[in-house]
Every structure is written in C-alpha cells, then in structure tokens.
Amino acid sequence: MKEKNKRKGSFNTDFVFGKKNYMFMLIGLAVIALGFILMSGGGSEDPNEFNDAIYNFQRIRLAPTLVLIGFGIEAYAILLNPNKK
Length: 85
Fold this sequence. Notes:
Layout: H1 2-8, H2 19-39, H3 57-79
Transmembrane segments: 21-42, 62-80
Pfam families: DUF3098
Keywords: Membrane, Transmembrane, Transmembrane helix
C-alpha cells in the first residue's frame, strides 16, 4: 500500500524550517528593520538650507552595516539545519 502512495505522489506535510530557523529569521528581520530606521531622517526643515546631519556616522557606517549583518543572519537562518544536534 505504501508503494502505491509513493508512485502516485503523496505529499509531505512537514514544515521546511524548524523553530530555531524561524527564531533566527525574526532576529534577522529585526536587525534589518533597525538598520533602515537608523538610516532614515537627517533632512532639513528648509529645502533651501543644507543639513550636514545626513553624513554622520549613524547613517553612513552603522545603519548599512546593520542591514548587511541582518541579511547575513537571514542567510544563516535559511541554511541552518534544525535537526542537527
């Protein structure tokens, strides 16, 4: 009977990722969101006046680094084997 099911294409209903994978995915998304939040702002109230705040450390170095780290965490979460002990 099991051979019949295999030939007809029975479907596996298990989840692809485990709890650990989803936990790392949420952490990665939070780090990416934090990076984009830190990147925002720094504009001037008056469009005729230039504000140097857009070139500070937070927007030029820290925020893009956090976004890249978040993408690295996401790649790790996808490649992580949840069954390995």
